[in-house]
Design goal:
This protein has about 160 residues and is mainly α. The chain has helices spanning about 5-15, 20-25, 35-40, 45-60, 60-75, 80-85, 95-100, 120-135, 140-150, and strands spanning about 105-110, 115-120. It has one domain. Helix 1 packs across helix 4.
């Protein structure tokens, strides 16, 4: 069974859909995040725990994948995008493969030099995520049972006021 950082890794991996980011946020060293994530994902118990976490959070299927994508856009790291924008020279393809550019919507290299990196709008992702989660809430859930019980309680009758009985 997973333990300590591995549990955190499983939970984050299920929600973010990004093993490298999950390893970093679980506290593993940045220079080893890719290799640690790969080693963890080779273990059947880790993969089963990630699937369990994903199903408990959103259920399975395409909607769960979309929610994980929204979570990743809203809360994921943009460090690699910033690193790319600050590079003076064009990175080699191998370096690009190692970067997490999930949050990038557009990359431009103007003729005059430099690099323009556009990111997806985190606020829009959060708003869509909130709307989606609100739409998924069941109106007959525990909250409505509590409200029904609360509304069914009659006010206390004062013993000295016979008209209230």
């Amino acid at each position: 069974m997973p333990h300590g950082n591995e549990h955190v890794f499983c939970w984050l991996c299920a929600r973010l859909g990004n093993p490298r980011e999950a390893a970093l946020r679980a506290g593993y060293p940045a220079n080893q995040a890719d290799s640690i994530a790969a080693k963890l994902l080779q273990r059947p118990k880790i993969r089963a725990k990630i699937e369990e976490c994903a199903n408990s959070a959103h259920g399975g299927g395409l909607s769960a994948l979309a929610l994980r994508g929204l979570l990743r856009l809203a809360l994921g790291s943009c460090n690699d995008a910033a690193r790319l924008a600050l590079m003076e020279e064009e990175p080699d393809p191998q370096a690009l493969e190692q970067m997490d550019l999930f949050c990038v919507s557009e990359i431009k290299r103007p003729k005059g030099g430099g690099c323009e990196v556009k990111l997806y709008n985190r606020l829009e992702a959060l708003e869509l995520l909130l709307k989606t989660c609100t739409d998924l809430e069941v109106p007959d859930g525990p909250g409505s049972l509590y409200a029904a019980l609360k509304d069914s309680i009659k006010p206390v009758v004062k013993a000295d006021d016979p008209d209230e009985i």
